[in-house]
Design brief:
three-stranded antiparallel β-sheet
């Protein structure tokens, strides 16, 4: 499923993630850490791969079209758990 988001929104999500999250996401989905970083706007294609993001210039850093939202979805789950610690507790 594709998703459209501004580049600044994507970077804000990355910046709010707890330390070590990029490594955790990479391990969980079986890709390199640099690939996850590239998903969030990095450009190290020697060690990481492109992740199906397409950038178009514009306001707020431009528009990003994500072909696959797996990394974004996991990042959002982690942020939700961080911001709502009681929701992650199972009784």
């Amino acid at each position: 499923m594709t998703k459209t988001i501004t580049f600044n929104e994507l970077r804000d999500i990355k910046d709010r993630l707890p330390d070590g999250t990029i490594h955790c996401i990479a391990n969980e989905i079986g890709v390199s850490v640099e690939t996850v970083r590239n998903y969030f706007g990095g450009q190290n294609f020697r060690e990481g791969k492109s992740c199906g993001i397409h950038l178009e210039p514009g306001p707020n850093g431009g528009i990003v079209i994500l072909d696959d939202t797996t990394i974004l979805d996991r990042a959002m789950e982690i942020l939700h758990e961080k911001e709502n610690p009681d929701a992650a507790v199972v009784a």
